[in-house]
Amino acid sequence: MNNQNMAFFSVIIPLYNKENYIESAIKSILNQTFTDYEILIINDCSTDKSVEKVTTFLSEKVRLIQHEKNGGLSVARNTGIAHATTNYITFLDGDDVWKPTFLETIHQLIINYPEARIFGTNYEEVYKSKTYQPHNGSSTLATGFTGYINFFKINVRQGIYNHGSVCFHKEVYEKVGNYNPEIKFSNDIDFNIRANYHFKLAYSNTVQMSYLMEVQHQITRNSILHKKIPNYDIYEDWAKDNPDLKKHLDFFRYVLAKKLKKDGDTSDWKKIVQSIDVKNLNWKQKLLLKCPQSLLLLVDTIKSVLIKYGIKISTYSK
User: Of all helices (H) and strands (E), which one includes residue 38?
Assistant: First the structure.
């Protein structure tokens, strides 16, 4: 602990039905080379043996906080923030793991880039067949790069970081608010827009987190029908003088629109597409935006088959 008897990092684990993974997630934190942290596990009314697995790790350093009713990911994250005792807040989902040097890398970013209040690293995607680098903007950076980056300019593919490979100073939440509990899909995208509009991001282009891609109860793999999704139009005023933000918004509109069409929600699909400036999309994205639902589902099936053979394709590359 530091001189104030307060940990340096608060690590928040939102937990819902991850009995097969939660032990590995916790162990990856306990195995960090930087050890000045607290762990807050927010049980969002799991119905499996997740809590039973967690109890063996509880200590002064590892706390379990129980929700009385299931509130979803945003509510669990907000509960963790409310109970955090430190200035630096980071997250790890119950089915992901950190590399041993994740917190050490973030701590070094905090020391070296004092103007930043957001600190992120690269990550890897773990499938049963193979581990991949995400199709994100990290390929435009030098290997091992560390420094300030323009989040909106670089983040028009897969995330330059995900919410398991980023740390926020508490000033960020005080300024922009917490996670919107009404949003049930892409709540992290909505928060990232608010956070990165107001604060600088320091980034390490080293892989410090493993994101498991084929996991039960994974929100990104489920239908978004009848779920509250972000309204990116509310950020258009910010984008008037910020073309990088406008392109960022249009990219994530494209991602949402494609998901909605696959789910058969043509009404919300039309609303979102109307706000897209297609000049901000690449040719593959423009094509898929016009494809019928059946073809989009076929493309997903082909991608799933190719993944099993160690081949990953994406519309995020030009």
Answer: strand 37-43
